[in-house]
Amino acid sequence: QVQLVESGGGLVQAGGSLRLSCAASGSDFSVGDMAWYRQPPGKQRELVAVITSGGSTNYVGSVKGRFTVSRDDAKNTVYLQMNSLKPEDTALYYCNAVIIRTRVTVYWGQGTQVTVSS
């Protein structure tokens, strides 16, 4: 079984920074594309950033220039560096990864709360 474990959320003032991490653990697997989603209170989950297995990245427009997604394949970990945070970035942040074993499966983390105060 593979698990995704997120860390790094918390409470920060507007203009501040946070770095989220998401590590995949288990045995006999490789990791494909990885992504971060978020779900603000009372709203639907949205894609924030994606990084392919080749290192290409893409972002939702509202975070471009402020957030950076990266990965460390030796650690099976994806990161989300969030700078210049705004109150509207407040949400439960989830990581998502394509896990390749005998078959390909999408896994989700449990979520980490990010709260930005004004």
How would you sum up this structure, described in words?
This protein has 118 residues and is an all-beta fold. The protein contains no helices and 11 strands. The strands form 2 sheets. Strands 2, 4, 5, 6, 9, 10 and 11 form a 7-stranded mixed beta sheet that branches. The chain has a 4-stranded antiparallel beta sheet with strand order 1-3-8-7, with no helix packed on it. The mean pLDDT is 97.
Report low-confidence residues grouped into runs of 5 or more.
none
What's the overall geometry?
elongated
Mean pLDDT: 97
Fraction of residues in β-strands: over 45%
Question: How many beta-strand elements?
Answer: 11
Structural class, judged by helices and strands?
mainly beta
Largest sheet: 7 strands, mixed
What level of helicity do the residues show? under 10%
End-to-end distance, in Å?
Answer: 41 Å
Q: Determine Rg (CA atoms, Å).
A: 14 Å
Order of helices and strands: EEEEEEEEEEE
**Total number of helical segments?**
0
